[in-house]
């Protein structure tokens, strides 16, 4: 592990977290811990309105920071976007979201890091180059390797449009065949566009490319959510 990607174990009121030593090295998909609603501001459960007393204790959801009774905040679910080492207490609504995100971290993130092959067209050029596209291990860069080499910082990506085909009037499923990605060049306001097209040479490559694009679509949603926090 390089010095820039070094991590440290920290304890917060919500639990143990394994975080990057430098904030600039954090994953672009990460979320900050929310501030907890002060105890004095929540005399009742913010879900079922049960009044708190010596028997009914207050619990804070680690994802939203709101205050609940034990019944409404009993689930302990992994929360990798906040770098928690162990599953943490969450309200029912947040637990459902976190459970869906766990699939991204367990499966789709690995697909992005393993990479897939695409024909890549830069800007308005009419020439494309066969390149292997993958997410870097620290999740901060989209790395493209062919005769040329590009490293696009994930936080500089402004839009991602997934290209599909296969829709039929009968409601048939569409298939991802490529994407158009726009990103800002660091140090300027210039926006560059890249078009990724799956190759049609091998059926297995098309399947791998489609899986990679589906994972990229999910990653984009998480990226936008992180920015909006």
From TrEMBL:
Alphabetical list of InterPro entries matching this protein: FYVE-type_Zinc_Finger, ZFYVE21_C, ZFYVE21_C_sf, Znf_FYVE, Znf_FYVE-rel, Znf_FYVE_PHD, Znf_RING/FYVE/PHD
Superkingdom as given in the UniProt entry: Eukaryota
Family annotation (SUPFAM superfamilies): FYVE/PHD zinc finger
Keywords carried by this UniProt record: Metal-binding, Zinc, Zinc-finger
Gene3D superfamilies: Zinc finger FYVE domain-containing protein 21, C-terminal, Zinc/RING finger domain, C3HC4 (zinc finger)
One Pfam family linked to the record: FYVE
Annotated ranges, domain FYVE-type: 39-94
One Gene Ontology term of the molecular function aspect: zinc ion binding
Full protein name: ZFY21 protein
Phylogenetic lineage: Eukaryota, Metazoa, Chordata, Craniata, Vertebrata
Gene name in the database record: Zfyve21
